[in-house]
């Protein structure tokens, strides 16, 4: 598992995500099709749970069956390539840079358009600071979802574990909104995502602390995380903001409604520089995980 994980990270660093026919895109289309047919008149928790199973069970069953029938060397290759398709470290950095670069150059309109690609909040009226906050929060939170949680579940349960987490996280991103349409239909996906992400989120928060301003990260994690709606995003973003010595959170607008988010972090207000700092924090944290995996690999040799 360790060597396959390291190979997958190398593939991601060299190649990034596939530009065409990414499996998660196909999963997203299936999920959208099921939601359109099963989420009528506000839907129900049961309908959302059934839709989730219809997405997850066939994929996991096929994957387990495939791995069980392969020789060890071929199974290793499938595990490495599969994890490469699941994680998104290079893609996350590219999306962050796409916002950082025009914002640094003073092109606020381009930065506003690009941050709308990666966040669910309303971006039309965001100023420089609002754009920087949105992008920095997205980089920090998705570091947990798109990198470290997938690595964690891969090391615990192989490729089926990583795929399970990524599928659930994708469905939560599509259905897990507290709106009239998704409040009930997306509840199973949201709660299962919270469960699978609980421990990886805290390991991510600890990694951010170890790779940034340690005492500030722990202080912000302890004092601010509980104020967030999400039990997992709270520790990740609070610790990340503290590690970066930057202030995040505050009032923003989602789906036409203003929302008072808790203040996270401490120190300077967010700017374009915070986006780059968050990316560097992701890189340092990933290097920490790689170093630990290599030590475990050598120790087990």
Automatic annotation (TrEMBL):
Gene, per the UniProt record: cobD
Subcellular location: Cell membrane
HAMAP family the UniProt entry points to: CobD_CbiB
Entry's family note: Belongs to the CobD/CbiB family.
Protein name: Cobalamin biosynthesis protein CobD
Species assigned in the record: Alcanivorax sediminis
Topology class, membrane: Multi-pass membrane protein
Domain of life: Bacteria
InterPro entries tied to this protein: Cobalamin_biosynth_CobD/CbiB
Transmembrane segments: 45-66, 146-168, 281-300
Molecular function in Gene Ontology: ABC-type vitamin B12 transporter activity; threonine-phosphate decarboxylase activity
Function recorded in the entry: Converts cobyric acid to cobinamide by the addition of aminopropanol on the F carboxylic group.
A Pfam family hit: CobD_Cbib
Pathway named in the protein's UniProt entry: Cofactor biosynthesis; adenosylcobalamin biosynthesis
GO-annotated cellular components: plasma membrane
Protein's UniProt keywords contain Membrane: yes
Primary residence: membrane
Biological process, per Gene Ontology: cobalamin biosynthetic process
Keywords in alphabetical order: Cell membrane, Cobalamin biosynthesis, Membrane, Transmembrane, Transmembrane helix
């Amino acid at each position: 598992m360790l060597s396959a994980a390291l190979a997958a990270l190398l593939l991601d660093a060299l190649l990034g995500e596939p530009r065409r026919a990414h499996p998660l895109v196909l999963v997203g289309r299936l999920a959208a099709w099921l939601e359109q047919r099963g989420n009528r008149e506000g839907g129900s928790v049961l309908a959302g749970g059934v839709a989730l199973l219809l997405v997850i069970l066939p994929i996991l069953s096929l994957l387990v069956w495939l791995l069980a029938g392969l020789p060890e060397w071929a199974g290793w290759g499938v595990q490495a390539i599969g994890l490469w398709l699941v994680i998104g470290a290079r893609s996350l950095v590219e999306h962050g840079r796409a916002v950082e670069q025009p914002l640094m150059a003073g092109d606020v309109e381009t930065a506003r358009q690009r941050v709308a690609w990666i966040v669910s909040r309303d971006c039309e009226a965001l100023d420089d600071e609002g754009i920087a906050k949105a992008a920095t929060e997205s980089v920090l939170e998705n570091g947990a979802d798109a990198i470290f949680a997938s690595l964690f579940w891969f090391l615990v349960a192989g490729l089926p574990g990583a795929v399970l987490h990524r599928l659930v996280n994708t469905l939560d991103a599509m259905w897990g909104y507290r709106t009239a349409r998704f409040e009930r239909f997306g509840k199973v996906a949201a709660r299962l995502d919270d469960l699978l992400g609980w421990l990886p989120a805290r390991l991510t928060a600890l990694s951010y602390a170890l790779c940034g301003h340690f005492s500030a990260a722990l202080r912000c994690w302890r004092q601010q995380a509980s104020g967030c709606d999400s039990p997992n995003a709270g520790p990740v973003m609070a610790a990340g903001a503290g590690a970066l010595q930057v202030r995040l959170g505050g009032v923003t607008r989602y789906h036409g409604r203003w929302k008072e988010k808790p203040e996270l972090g401490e120190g300077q207000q967010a700017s374009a520089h915070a986006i780059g700092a968050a990316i560097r924090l992701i890189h340092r944290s990933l290097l920490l995980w790689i170093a630990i995996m290599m030590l475990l690999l050598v120790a087990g040799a």
